[in-house]
C-alpha cells in the first residue's frame, strides 16, 4: 500500500538547510494500523504530512499503490489526497457554525458530489459512527468524543483507502480515546490502512506495529 524509499525533507533557512526527515525507509501494508511515536520535534508529524501529500519530499520516493506520489505536481497531489486519504486531527477542525452533517458534507462538496448524494452518504457515515441522532447538532453541543466521531465521519465519507490521524486521542479522556481506537481497529478490519501519530504509549500499543522517530531518523532502521 505505502512504501517510503530513502525519504528526506529539509527546509531552507537563508543559505542553510534544516534537515527534518532523514533517510526514512518504511513499508505499510493494506489493512494495517501503525503508530508513529517520538518526542515533539522528532519529525513524526512532518512524516505524516509527506505520506498524505500535504508536503513534498526533498529527495527519495513515496509510493502509494505503486504510484510515485513524490513526482506529482500540486494538482496531482490534491487529487490523490481527495481520492485516497482521510485526515483526522487532535483539534477536530470542525466548522463551528455548521452542524455535524454539514461538516461531514464538506469533502464531498470539494469533490463535486450532488447534494442529494452528499446528504445520503453523510447520514450513512454518521450512523456508522453512532452519531446519526446528533446530525443537526453543532460542535459546541457535542462532547470531545462526539466531535472526534464527526471528524472521523468526515474523513471516511469519500471512501478513502488510508486514514492519517495526527494525535487523534490527544484531547480525549481515556474512555473516549479507547472508543476512537476501536473505531480505527474496525476500519482496518474493513481493509483500510490507518496511520497514527501519537505521544501516548497506550494508543501506540494497540497498533499492529510501532515506528519510533528520533531527531528526524527512524530508530532501528
UniProtKB/TrEMBL annotation:
GO molecular function per UniProt: ATP binding
InterPro entries associated with the record: AAA+_ATPase, ABC_transporter-like_ATP-bd, ABC_transporter-like_CS, MacB-like_ATP-bd, P-loop_NTPase
Keyword Transport: yes
PROSITE patterns: ABC_TRANSPORTER_1 (PS00211), ABC_TRANSPORTER_2 (PS50893)
Keyword Nucleotide-binding: yes
Family, as annotated: Belongs to the ABC transporter superfamily.
Name of the protein in question: ABC transporter ATP-binding protein
